[in-house]
Specification:
This protein is about 30% helix and about 25% strand. The chain has 15 helices and 22 strands. β8 (about 155), α7 (about 160-165) and β9 (about 175-180) form a beta-alpha-beta unit. α3 (about 50-70) packs across α10 and α5 packs parallel to α6 (about 135-145).
Length: about 475
């Protein structure tokens, strides 16, 4: 078999795909010469391509604008960034170039919000939507933000106790709030109802009991989120319709209610075979909401979204070198990489997530079927299948010709789940991380955000080096 790796990819998928091209034998990502990065910085290597963040934000804003114009939807759209996807300053700096808003999920998020306000990255017109289960520190931080005069802070009430906890900390200021619906999960999910929010049938009674007669509280938002994401399924459309019934019932009793938060859940490419019609989904969501409101003779709500993975996911990537090949029992060929999947791409291990995986170089070489193994001694430290073909195919291993492989669209959650700057399984060092940007002339610039972890770094965390 003499088929080249390029032929395999080209025959199996439409290639080149958006963001991926070839320069002779080497892969380019958003016209970035990946082998040049390898030569300059070595491997293992993580990178963030900052312009991808702004690109996705502006695509979504454009899609919603077009859908609202098409459906004559008389409401506004607010794009919030879901901070838990990636809290890094370089992500925030890029995201908030685009006149967007922010969604928080825990106490320390408010410290980040305050820093962004102090530096002028966000301002008094920025909505701060506070989600999550709120305990003392989170409540205190939200109250501090409201007491400082940030009137567009909207705590989303998650349980019956939270409103009272917040009111105890607010200094004689009227508070604007939202309520989160506890959605019914898809039948195949492990649980029937989300642990977050208040049940559909309890929303209106909760409003009547704790909000309706409280002159210091103004209900502005109903929050709706489906764990499995925004997908064109009967389940999703049914849950959206149930949500609209609650919104309509609540709106008829609460004139101040004017916003619907449909959460996050836009998917990103996890293989070259990925297909998703974003424009259709947005158009249909806007259409369904408008139809429901028109039939009920109420004003349509402003729409908030909280896209996290969609915002930052496609900006990230990781490059590894294949160090060695082991053939076990004359069957499996294991390509051993110079890092660990468990520590650097923890979702591949924890939830069996797949990312776009491609060879970085040697595209004109013949290919073979392999398994990919990490450096830890854990049997789960592997990556052995793609959703689209149930195997990994790469250029044949040749110890005289180093092979580099890339994992793409890894920018969401991997650093925080993996524990950036901390201890990793088998003390595998955290890779070097670089930032990639373009100036107004399109010239690429790179800088090191963090160096590869050293033995001294790890020994200090463990208490050996004081």
């Amino acid at each position: 078999m003499n088929t080249k790796y390029y032929d395999l990819i080209n025959q199996t998928f439409y290639f080149p795909q958006e963001g991926f091209t070839l320069n002779k034998d080497n892969l380019q990502f958003n016209n970035i010469d990946l082998m040049k990065l390898v030569e300059e910085y070595g491997t293992p290597l993580k990178f963030t391509y900052l312009p991808a963040i702004s690109n996705n934000i502006n695509k979504a804003k454009s899609w919603f604008r077009k859908a609202m114009e098409k459906n004559k939807y008389d409401g506004k759209y607010y794009y919030c960034y879901c901070t838990k996807s990636s809290h890094f300053e370089f992500v925030m700096n890029e995201a908030f170039k685009n006149n967007i808003h922010i969604e928080t999920s825990s106490a320390f998020d408010i410290n980040i919000v305050e820093k962004l306000l102090e530096e002028g990255k966000i301002n008094k017109n920025t909505y701060v939507v506070c989600n999550g289960f709120k305990r003392e520190q989170y409540v205190e931080n939200i109250a501090r933000l409201i007491n400082s005069g940030h009137s567009r802070t909207i705590p989303v009430i998650d349980n019956y106790e939270e409103l009272d906890l917040l009111m105890d900390k607010i200094d004689n200021k009227k508070i604007k709030i939202g309520i989160r619906i506890a959605a019914e999960e898809e039948p195949k999910f492990e649980f029937y109802t989300s642990r977050l929010g208040i049940g559909y049938k309890n929303i209106v009674p909760f409003y009547r009991k704790q909000i309706q007669e409280n002159k210091d509280v103004e209900l502005k938002m109903l929050h709706f989120f489906i764990n499995t994401g925004i997908r064109d399924t009967a389940y999703y459309w049914n849950e959206l319709l149930k949500c609209m019934k609650v919104y309509i019932a609540l709106k008829k009793e609460c004139p101040t209610l004017d916003s619907l938060n449909i959460g996050g859940g836009f998917p990103i490419k996890n293989s070259l075979a990925f297909e998703y019609d974003y424009e259709y989904m947005i158009d249909e969501i806007i259409n369904q909401i408008k139809i429901a409101c028109d039939e009920a003779e109420i004003d349509v709500p402003h729409i908030f979204t909280e896209f996290g993975t969609f915002t930052v996911g496609e900006s990230g990537g990781a490059i590894y070198q294949v160090l060695y090949q082991k053939q076990q029992n004359d069957r499996e060929k294991w390509n051993m990489i110079d890092s660990s999947f468990i520590t650097t791409l923890p979702d591949t291990w924890a939830i069996n997530k797949r990312f776009v995986m491609l060879a970085v170089n040697r595209w004109n070489d013949t290919y073979e079927r392999v398994l990919l193994g990490g450096l830890t001694c854990d049997s789960d430290d592997y990556y052995n299948s793609e959703q689209h073909m149930n195997a990994v195919y790469l250029p044949k291993y040749n110890k005289e010709k180093p092979l580099y492989i890339g994992f793409f669209n890894t920018g969401a959650y991997q650093e925080t789940i993996g524990g950036f700057g901390g201890l990793h399984h088998c003390l595998i060092p955290q890779p070097k991380h670089i930032l990639i940007d373009r100036d107004e002339n399109g010239i690429i610039a790179t800088e090191v955000f963090s160096e590869q972890q050293t033995a001294e770094d790890v020994m200090k965390i463990l208490g050996y080096n004081k």
